[in-house]
Amino acid sequence: MGFWQEAFAAVKENDPAARYNLEIILTYPGVKALAAHKISHFLWQHDIKLLARVHAQFWRFLTQIEIHPGAEIANGVFIDHGSGLVIGETAVVETGVKLYHGVTLGGTGKDTGKRHPSVRRGALISAHSQLLGPIEIGEYARVGASAVVTKDVPKRVTVVGIPAKIVRVHGGDTPERNCAQLERERHVSFYDHMGGI
Ligand SMILES: CC(C)(COP(=O)(O)OP(=O)(O)OC[C@H]1O[C@@H](n2cnc3c(N)ncnc32)[C@H](O)[C@@H]1OP(=O)(O)O)[C@@H](O)C(=O)NCCC(=O)NCCS
């Protein structure tokens, strides 16, 4: 499927209020922002960087969604509402990901090179959550509204709060023990990655 078919399918799957394709084009800022990003990203990749950034800013003005032209965003991503959504230059967003208003896929200001999150297939990133640094959000993970996430999140878990902690393991047979265990592993791997404490 191409960009438009996947965009329409993603909206209809996630929003029962969506009725037909023309309505989706006219009334879903997320679809417009993602379509415009295809063009900004093309310009960025072909080293027409200033025009890419100006184009992205123009669409930011119209949609209130700011996507850096360098960000890699797959087809089939769903942005609901979208106001205040910010996606940084080195972010990666895979297919099936859902992003709500007020979300930041941003940097901490401490990293260079890859400095924004990678959000894997099917993950749900709830309203106003802040995902900071070159972290990985695993497939089908759920990030609760207003969470602040600065460490990797394993696949198929729910994290909530500030700093975000694992509160559900989807599909585990003993969820409580799994949460604590996964949270410990996550903590250890974060500090290993930072070079110890
Ligand atoms: C996180 C979320 C996706 C639910 O995921 P889930 O895996 O079904 O998790 P649950 O609802 O079982 O909640 C797990 C625990 O976290 C708590 N929790 C859920 N969301 C939370 C949040 N945003 N902040 C703090 N705690 C939260 C629940 O109360 C529950 O606590 P308990 O174990 O003490 O009962 C959902 O709560 C959420 O935040 N949705 C927001 C979606 C959104 O942005 N909507 C905007 C539409 S306009």
Automatic annotation (TrEMBL):
Reactions it catalyzes: L-serine + acetyl-CoA = O-acetyl-L-serine + CoA
Main subcellular location: cytoplasm
InterPro entries xrefs: LbH_SAT, Ser_AcTrfase_N_sf, Ser_O-AcTrfase, Serine_acetyltransferase, Trimer_LpxA-like_sf
Enzyme Commission number(s) from the entry: 2.3.1.30
Signal peptide: none
Key words, A-Z: Acyltransferase, Amino-acid biosynthesis, Cysteine biosynthesis, Cytoplasm, Repeat, Transferase
Pathway in which this enzyme or protein is active: Amino-acid biosynthesis; L-cysteine biosynthesis; L-cysteine from L-serine: step 1/2
Keyword Acyltransferase: yes
Any one GO CC term of the record: cytoplasm
Gene3D superfamilies: Hexapeptide repeat proteins, serine acetyltransferase, domain 1
Compartments in which it is found: Cytoplasm
A single BP term in Gene Ontology: cysteine biosynthetic process from serine
Any one GO molecular-function label of the UniProt entry: serine O-acetyltransferase activity
Family: Belongs to the transferase hexapeptide repeat family.
PANTHER family xref list: SERINE ACETYLTRANSFERASE
Listed name of the protein: Serine acetyltransferase
Organism: Pseudolactococcus insecticola
Taxonomic lineage: Bacteria, Bacillati, Bacillota, Bacilli, Lactobacillales
Gene for this chain: cysE
